[in-house]
């Protein structure tokens, strides 16, 4: 909860009572490895923060999985488009290790905002995080080589190479695992 408290007070300039009011609404959930937080076709009605563990978001096409995001400790996690539209999601969010999250439902969050517009700062902060990550990823696929996308991944998620399997990283980059191995070897040789 300390990471969340720091966001409220240090990043957003909200006061202790805002954090305490939010914390009263927070629920906790444990997710076992390979368990889904949400699956394609469900409507997402929560925003969460990962307190421990790691999760991935992926879409499926013709039985093939394509990773499109990772959620590590202290990252917000949600199927954000579904959350905003209240339409079924087209993605799956799965735990890559036993994980714990703290979450708030859409209904609870909207009630907090209705009672105190200061909570809009948190809503904007979360929205900005997801928007920026999405834009960076899209732009990297249009402009960057796989090696440059890997470098961006390392900057976006420091230490990810020790937490996430090469198979999942390759999927996120849109390449095969053997291509990832070549890129890493060439990067090592050129340093």
From TrEMBL:
InterPro entries in the record: cNMP-bd_dom, cNMP-bd_dom_sf, RmlC-like_jellyroll
Pfam families: cNMP_binding
Limits of the Cyclic nucleotide-binding domain: 13-113
PROSITE patterns per the UniProt record, alphabetical: CNMP_BINDING_3
Name used for this protein in its record: Cyclic nucleotide-binding protein
Organism encoding this protein: Flavobacterium hercynium
């Amino acid at each position: 909860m300390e990471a969340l408290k720091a966001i409220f007070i240090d990043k957003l300039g909200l006061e202790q009572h805002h954090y305490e009011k939010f914390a009263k609404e927070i629920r906790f959930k444990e997710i076992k490895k390979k368990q889904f937080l949400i699956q394609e076709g469900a409507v997402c009605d929560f925003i969460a923060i990962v307190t421990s563990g790691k999760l991935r978001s992926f879409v499926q096409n013709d039985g093939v999985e394509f990773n499109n995001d990772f959620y590590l400790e202290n990252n917000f996690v949600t199927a954000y488009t579904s959350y905003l539209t209240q339409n079924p999601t087209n993605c799956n969010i799965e735990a890559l290790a036993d994980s714990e999250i703290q979450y708030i439902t859409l209904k609870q969050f909207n009630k907090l905002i209705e009672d105190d517009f200061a909570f809009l700062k948190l809503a904007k902060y979360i929205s900005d995080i997801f928007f920026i990550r999405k834009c960076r990823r899209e732009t990297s696929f249009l402009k960057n080589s796989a090696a440059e996308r890997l470098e961006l991944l390392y900057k976006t998620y420091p230490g990810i190479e020790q937490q996430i399997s090469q198979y999942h990283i390759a999927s996120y980059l849109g390449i095969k695992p053997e291509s990832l191995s070549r890129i890493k070897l060439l990067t090592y040789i050129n340093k």
